[in-house]
Write a structure and sequence with these properties.
4-stranded antiparallel beta sheet; 5 helices; binds calcium ion; Aryl-sulfate sulfotransferase; Arylsulfotransferase_bact
Length: about 425
């Protein structure tokens, strides 16, 4: 008895041809998508227009994007722009008056201070956005040529600044800028084992944010430990206040810029840009425990790194890889947005105070949590989330700025498909030879 021939569709050669065609098509679609992003991307924060957000908006971009600081008038037109330093992180309204901000920026150069080696120099400066008058407040020279040391600075009073130091020795410290004296420091290594977080002593904690609380405590963001911690400058770490747990990504996942809302404004609560989870969250302190009280995301939100609760109940968000700045209403809808280059780090509306300084808790405001949308467009936009977030965001960090999260998703899928096809072809060739 002879076996009947296989139907065409099941013949290995035909199957291979169909596979080759499908992979080729995928590669073409990926190429077209990337080309379209290249053709339409606008790296200039000073281009384009959007209505004003209802105040003076200031935004920074760090090494993720085309590093710069830009300010917009309440009507949306450009007020100030500077890219001298190449890397800008925290910006805050200055206590000295309207249209004046303080920021921390970084540049790399060879300096006598580092024996001719390349240095990372962090500067804290105050600039009047209307007159361009700039004052240097503090300089930190770091001989290690890694990521810039200081991503956040918080002003305690006229002469004391509080720094967040992401590199070894991973600490927060207060400096009297008049005398240049360090008057207090807490090193994470006093309370955390080297096995926690990232690789020790490299990018161990990625301590990227610090806040001096109205009650005198210091709130510290340990990004790589997925935790926000509270330190009493006299008594040390308050372990029972810690929000999040190392590796428990249900709570926080390599977050940025937590803002504390005290009891007087409906807290204790903390608003956090939960970056690798692509969402903004708020946790409320109830009976000695942190409970999630609010969550917001839409299908575009990608690696957000700042969220400020505004006095009117809106939340201002820096959507780093979603390439936009936006505000969200109390009911969870997007009330305003402006396209912005990839890599926005910190956003502030000057008239509303530093970060969430005059904002109330989600619980007090009765904020509605926002979902990521329904329908096929939302599903389509969410496809990049099939790629593990650290892989996707790592790719977006290293690829050109005009590559969108969707392009990165297609590149990953195409890459995997081409690799699998290659392996299949090799196996076929091996078996037939
Ligand atoms: Ca800020
Ligand atoms: Ca700050
Ligand atoms: Ca904030
Ligand atoms: Ca902010």
């Amino acid at each position: 008895m002879t076996r009947s021939p296989l139907p065409n569709a099941l013949r290995p050669s035909t199957r291979m041809s169909t596979l080759r065609l499908a992979v080729a098509l995928l590669v073409v679609v990926t190429g077209l998508s990337v080309a379209a992003s290249f053709a339409t991307y606008d790296t200039a924060a000073t281009q384009g227009s959007a209505p004003g957000v209802g105040g003076t908006l200031v935004a920074t971009i760090d090494a993720t994007g085309p590093g710069q600081i830009v300010a917009y008038h309440p009507n949306g037109s450009v007020m100030y722009h500077n890219e001298t330093y190449g890397i800008y992180h925290d910006v805050d309204p200055a206590p000295t008056g309207s249209d004046t901000v303080e920021y921390v920026a970084t540049y790399h150069n060879e300096s006598d201070a580092c024996a001719g080696e390349t240095c990372s120099v962090d500067v804290v400066e105050r600039v009047n956005l209307t007159t361009d008058e700039t004052t240097r407040l503090h300089t930190i020279v770091d001989t290690e040529n890694g990521s810039s040391d200081d991503h956040d600075v918080d002003r305690i009073n006229e002469s004391v600044l509080l720094f967040a130091n992401i590199n070894y020795p991973d600490s927060v410290f207060m400096v009297n800028t008049t005398t240049d004296e360090t008057i207090w420091e807490w090193r994470v290594s006093e309370d955390y084992a080297p096995e926690s977080g990232g690789s020790y002593p490299g990018d161990w904690t990625h301590l990227n944010d610090v806040e001096y609380l109205p009650d005198g405590r210091v709130m510290v963001d340990l990004r790589n430990q997925d935790q926000v911690v509270f330190v009493d400058p006299g008594a040390g770490l308050q372990e029972n206040w810690t929000l999040g747990a190392d590796g428990d990504h249900e709570i926080l996942y390599e977050q940025h810029n937590p803002d504390y809302i005290p009891e007087a404004r409906g807290g204790p609560a903390v608003v956090v840009a939960d970056s690798e989870n692509n969402r903004i969250v708020e946790y409320q302190r109830e009976d000695g425990e942190w409970q999630r009280s609010w969550r917001w995301a839409d299908s575009r939100l990608s690696w957000p790194r700042d969220a400020d609760r505004l006095p009117d109940g809106r939340t201002l968000i820096a959507d780093s890889h979603g390439s936009r700045i936006l505000t969200v209403n109390r009911n969870g809808s997007v009330s305003w947005s402006r396209d912005f280059p990839d890599g926005v780090y910190d956003v502030e509306i000057l008239e509303t105070g530093d970060e969430s300084a005059n904002g109330s808790s989600a619980a007090a405001l009765g904020l509605e949590s926002g979902g990521v949308g329904v329908g096929w467009t939302a599903t389509f936009a969410r496809l990049p989330r099939l790629v593990p977030p650290v892989v996707l965001h790592g790719l977006l960090y290293s690829l050109p700025l005009w590559v969108t999260p969707f392009d990165a998703f297609l590149l990953v899928v195409s890459g995997v498909a081409v690799a699998l096809l290659g392996v299949g072809e090799a196996v076929r060739w091996y078996r037939s030879s």
